[in-house]
Amino acid sequence: MKSIILKSVFLLIFLIFLSGIASAQVRFYEKKIFVSKNDTLRYLLLRNQKSNEKVPLILYLHSADANGRDNEKQLTHSPGIVTGSVFREKYSFYFIAPQCAPNKSWVNARNWDRLKMKKTASSQLQLVKALIDSVILTNKIDEKRIYVIGASMGGFGTWDLICRYPSMFAAAIPVCGVGDINMAKYISNIPIWVFHGEKDARVKVQYSRDIVKAIQKAGGNPRYTEYPGLPHDIRDTVYNNAEIWEWMFLQKLK
Q: At 224, which CATH number?
């Protein structure tokens, strides 16, 4: 009994710690609500535009543990590096972080195993696409430099988005996600950097290996980083790697 109580206390402390991280970051963002076809999507917007010139747009898709309606939880495991003074001084950009509604998903999937893309995008991903279009229309966005990054459920969403709209994204960074190998030929021209933990017990590492091979077979040249011995949650390891951001900002639609 004592062991169970201690574990519960440690879990509570950890959750409070994560909540504190999100709360500390949220001050950099504008809280927004996007409405389309009588449906609502909450999102956070970080503007880092130093001049009147057009800037890149980064879309971040969170994992399933951040679903909700508070419009803050999606920052719990988000790329906190983007709020740092060094990062903001180096890059100009817009960063949007939508929050998936409770009991919904970026992708219509079962048990995290999805090898064939659904004909229609999930209601949440449809909202995300409409949000991107709206942000582009109402702000000075460089449409040749739109990027998407996401882990776990967000990794699924990243693959799904670029497969549905391959001409929209200049680069994608899916982390521990699953992509439809049958769609590889449609995304072979997109610069993609794939990440996965070798010991991932939630989303099999083989899925990333397979989609990377499929894209290569279709003539593409995706980058693939597999972390030996690491489990499912590699978000912070990936997001805090300055190299991925340097690589991403270099990518541009032709």
A: 3.40.50.1820
